């Protein structure tokens, strides 16, 4: 009994800590896009901005303790279903857009059009599936994760199955993108114009960074899917404390993962973050994420 109580306490602290980290990471991306007009000119950065909005709201919901006997628990459960699925759909959309840019050389203008359509389709699918859960499930307060979630076997099909379809499709696109980038990189190395050579290298770095989206999906949803599937198919089995702890630690972290990839690993984003917090860097200290041909093409349109 002491072990279970201790494990659940650790579980709760990890869930809260992970949610706070994700919320902070998401807010950093959001603030950088809102504060600096030149920062949000990059089309791909706008996509991460949209993804971060969903991550921020979801992280905030994870921080609110669920109450089994109140209507808020039901609201929280359905909201997490909707907000939890949207980042997966948007991440797949980003993978598709990156693939079209890398392999098909689509312009920013064409990518914008398909991006808007994919976003609308994602919202419609998430809304339909969330509405489908109403009346077919009960809201349950899981003490090992602090927040309310929807219980029922159909959740495998209405939620986790589609998330993993998005994840697997994104991974396949990731592999195709990496192969194409390697091919393009070999051709770039043969170029003699140093300016064009550097610009194309910078573009590849942007594309490579965007292609890592499915990796954060795997880190976020792998343990959660295993745990929920276990609870659905083996409802009478004892709680696995290790699985609960890993679930609490990883499930809320997508906003944090995105911040690490798209801010911490970008010198231009770090420069803007430093400028936001304390001081301004010289104008000539720029990163490929600011001076890419994507930005230049967007300005020409």
Automatic annotation (TrEMBL):
InterPro entries: GCR1-cAMP_receptor. Keywords: Membrane, Receptor, Transmembrane, Transmembrane helix. The chain crosses the membrane at residues 12-35, 47-66, 78-100, 120-137, 157-177. It is a multi-pass membrane protein. Its main location: membrane. It is found in: Membrane. This is G protein-coupled receptor. It comes from Anaeramoeba flamelloides.
């Amino acid at each position: 009994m002491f072990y279970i109580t201790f494990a659940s306490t650790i579980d709760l602290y990890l869930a809260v800590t992970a949610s706070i980290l994700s919320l902070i990471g998401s807010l950093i991306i959001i603030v950088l896009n809102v504060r600096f007009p030149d920062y949000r000119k990059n089309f791909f950065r706008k996509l991460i901005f949209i993804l971060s909005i969903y991550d921020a709201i979801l992280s905030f919901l994870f921080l609110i303790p669920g109450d089994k006997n109140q209507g808020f628990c039901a609201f929280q459960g359905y909201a997490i279903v909707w907000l939890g699925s949207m980042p997966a759909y948007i991440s797949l959309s980003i993978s598709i857009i990156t693939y079209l840019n890398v392999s098909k050389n689509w312009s920013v203008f064409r990518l914008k059009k398909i991006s808007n359509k994919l976003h609308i389709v994602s919202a419609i699918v998430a809304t339909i599936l969330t509405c489908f859960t109403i009346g077919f499930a009960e809201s349950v307060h899981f003490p090992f994760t602090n927040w309310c979630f929807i219980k029922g076997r159909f959740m495998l099909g209405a939620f986790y199955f589609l998330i993993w379809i998005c994840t697997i499709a994104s991974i396949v696109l990731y592999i195709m993108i990496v192969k194409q980038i390697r091919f393009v990189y070999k051709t770039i190395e043969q170029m003699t114009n140093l300016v064009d050579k550097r610009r194309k290298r910078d573009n590849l770095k942007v594309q490579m960074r965007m292609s890592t989206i499915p990796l954060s999906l795997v880190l976020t949803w792998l343990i959660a899917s295993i745990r929920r599937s276990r609870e659905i198919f083996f409802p009478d089995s004892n709680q696995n404390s290790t699985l609960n702890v890993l679930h609490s630690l990883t499930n809320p972290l997508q906003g944090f993962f995105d911040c690490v990839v798209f801010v911490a690993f970008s010198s231009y984003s770090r420069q803007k973050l430093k400028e936001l917090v304390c001081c301004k860097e010289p104008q000539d200290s720029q990163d490929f994420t600011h001076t890419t041909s994507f930005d230049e093409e967007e300005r020409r349109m």
